Structures are given as structure tokens and as C-alpha cells.
Amino acid sequence: MTCIPAHTEKKLGLVIDLDTCVGCQGCVTSCKEWNTGGSMAPLTDLNPYDGGVDGVWFNRVHTYEQTTEMGGRTVHFPRSCLHCEQPACVTVCPTGASYKRTSDGIVLVDEDKCIGCKLCSWACPYGAREFDVDVGVMKKCTLCVDRIYNENLDQEDRVPACVAACPTGARHFGDLGDPTSAVSQLVAEREGVDLMPELGYRPTNKYLPPRSRHGRAAATPDPKLDAIKAEGGFLGWVDRMLSR
Amino acid sequence: MHPAFSLVFFTTATGAGYGLLALVGIFSVLGLASPLTGFCVASLGLAFALIISGLLSSTGHLGRPERAWRAFSQWRTSWLSREGLASVITFIPAGAFAIGWIYLGPGNIWVSIAGILAAVSAMITVYTTGMIYASLKPIAQWHSRFTAPGYIAFSLMTGSVLLNAMLHVFGAESLPPTIVALATTLWGWAWKWRTWSHNDTLGSAISLNSATGLKEGTVRSIEWPHTEENYLLKEMGFRIARKHQARLRLITQLLAFLVPVLLICGSVLLWQPLGIVFSILAALSQFCGILVERWLFFAEAKHNVAVYYGR
Question: What total of structural domains would you count in chain B?
Fold first, then answer.
């Protein structure tokens, strides 16, 4: 049913640290590797070894340059489904294929009901959903629902594949509905933010902004050397002779 | 947004078909339509042909069209589901109206009631079509107060110009339907003009700062996650229309509004056989113009996700 639950028992989601993400794409490939054999399988690739390669991915890492008064910095930005509390992708679905789970808040697609009308992807401002032209249905991040509850895996592996893969610990998984959880405390401590809050989708996933650099690492261009002069002595003579 | 031809044709054809159905219903109740059975069969037949071909065309947009029946289930939240239901429900009064006219004649009270019900449900269907687009927050050009009324305006406009042509063909032309055709065309023109002026003031609703949560300073995309165009860029990053915007808007205005207005005026003033030709040409020109308009409606619309790609 495409009505959104008024309350979910948990709000499982990700917290992504933009300060420590190095843009290695490890989470991207790990996501693809797990999910192309997981519950949403396959994540079709078209022309994988040719020009015009195209394929379904649940997680994409962009790279941005942020320029402030403190200077410039490169920010790697992983983008995936935010498992919103007000997911318009669910309410627009005409068939009930898209749904938000009452138990943990995960937004999923029932691929057997999807008619491939693509309206959910139009309703998502975050570009979380990608259409599989080969299968004719919409696909999206499942928050690795087939890992996090998987009793065949060791306890430490029951996290989304992207979280397990991240070498810098930039991705955290947990219950954002519980204010005492590690992820909730991390968000509170680092002042985590919602993406596009003005649209009112109320994303569950949070992003931790890069830490302030206290003016140490401002990436400004080197100053001109002309103004630098040696004061007197042999060095002053060398400087004067070479400046001619 | 990528302008899929299946959707461009679907919205244009069903709009014209439902408009024609609604106006045939209302004009026959008012006694302003031709009483000939031939007129009923031809005009309602044309309306049904436009509606059915449009609805079939819309399934061409689906990845799994064999499951289309599932789309009738989520009417509580989904405008697409409501549109599907409304389009099917409309066939009940519309069918009763068509059959009643043929067997009972257009003057019968039950036929009139069916005609009014058909007109109302046709307009509800067109409204639900408009709301599919108007309900999408990430697309500012669609998520506006102009979208759904625009769909109704264009439906009545194309329907009335078609009706005027059908009345000419059956020698039953009169001033009221001609005036309605002219008035709705001018209304549609004014509405489109207002919509475009509104859209031109929108700019980019969402900044990259808001999209990335990097609140300070300026944020610039320096590297995409992929080297080739992906689904998002193909479906939602469509840019060709924005390049040719001015010329396409001019073509729309000529074909959909100016040429039909001149031809309809000509059909009134000129010698009768020419009137038939002019009124048919007006309908054809307008249909082509609205196809261009609808192509632009999709192609000009900018989805928020493009912000992530610096577009």
C-alpha cells in the first residue's frame, strides 16, 4: 500500500561523513557487487565493454569543490536513497510496488508489482532510483535488507555493503529514530544535516559536513615572489644581481 | 525531462478526445449540436478513437505493460492511479450517452443526463492527468498552479475546435460553437503565455549548497560519478529543448493558437465549402501545435536532480 506509515518502529538509515570520505568508490563497487546478487538482482549493465556504457547503480559518488572565505576544498559526496519519512516516490506509485516498511522505515520496491512507469524516479529529487531497461522495472537501494537481518552472516557483517566496505569509516549505519543510538549521537555532535530540507521529504539519512579547518589549510594560490627582498649582505647582492 | 513520444501523444490525444466528448455532451443538452445520428457516430467515434489511442499509447511508456492493470489499485495516494480509474469510469456515462443518442435520440432526458455525466467525468479525467505532473515537487515548472488548469484549458480548446470542424462537416455549423472554439483558443493562448512567463522567473529552485548540505560558500561539480550518460541524465537531464526554446515556443503559438484563430474566423466569413476545409485545417494545425507544446512541456521541465550534475 502506498500510504506512508504515520510512525515507524525504527528509522534505519545511513550517516555519511563528508569530512572523511576520500571518494575511493569502494562503497559504490561493493554495493553493486552485493546487490547484483541480492534481492533486487540483477543490476543490469548495458554495453559494459563498449562505448555508451550504462547500468543500474544504487550509490554514486560525486566530487564537488567548495569555495569559502577559508579557501577551497574538495568534497566527495556519496548519493543514494535517503529512505525519507515523506517519500513521494511511494505515494505516487500507482501499483503499490513502492512501499515504506512500518517496522524499520526502509523504502523498497516490489519488483513483481512494478509496471515501470518511472513516476517514482520523477518524484525523487535526490536521483535515488534508477530504471532497469532490461528488466523493465525500477530499482533502488534496499539498505541491504538482505544483509542487515541475515542470520547466515556474522554479526559484524550485518550492515549495508557500502558501510562494510568503507575504508575510512565515513559511512555509519543505525537507527536514527533512537536518540541514544551511536548514529543519532554522531549526528547531534557533528550537526548532521538533511539534503534539500525545503522540499519537505524529511530524509532519514544524514550528512555530516566537513570539519572547520581553523584557517590552517586554506588553499590559496602562492603569493607573488617579486615583493620578497633579501636585506643587505651577500644574499642582498645576489638578489639584486639576479633581479636585473 | 525526457519527452517520451508515448506520453506526448497520450496527453495530447486524450485531452482532445475528452474535450470533444465533454463538449458534444454539453452542446447536445443545450440543443446546439446536430441532431443527425451520423454526427453522433462520427464525433463520438472520433472522441473515443482519440481517447483509446491515447490510453494505449501511454502503456507504451511502461517497462512492463502487461501489468498495467495493477495501476488501478492505489487511488488513495497516486494521481496516476486516479487517472487510470477516472479514464475507465468515464467510458460508462460516455458509452451510455453514445448508445442512448443512437437509440433514443439526443432529446431524451436520460441521454442528456448521461451527456452531462460524461462531460463531468471527462473533465475530471483530464484534471487527474494534469495533477500527475502538478504533484511532482522536484519539477518546479510542473509543480505550479498553472499545470492542471492548463490541461483542462487545452482539452476544452482542442475539443471545441474539433467539434466546430465536425459541425461544419455535417452542415450544422452555428455561431455558438464557433465562438466557443475561438474563445477557448484565446484562453489557451493566454494561459500558456502566463505559464511561460511564470516558468521563466523560476530560475533554479534548489541550490547545490542545499542539495549537498554544504551550506557555506559556493559549491561546484568537478567530477561526475560516471563517464557516460546514465538513466538520471537521459531521463531527467534533457537539455535540447532549452537550447531551441524561443523558436519552439513561436512554432507552438503559430500552430496551436494563431493559425486556428485565423482559419476559424475565415470559416465563418468565407463561402461554405471553404468553411469545411478551413475548420478541419484549424483542428489539424492545433493538434500539431499542441503536440509541440506538450513536447516542450516535458522537454523544458527541469528536474532537481540535474543540480547534482551541475546542470
Answer: 1
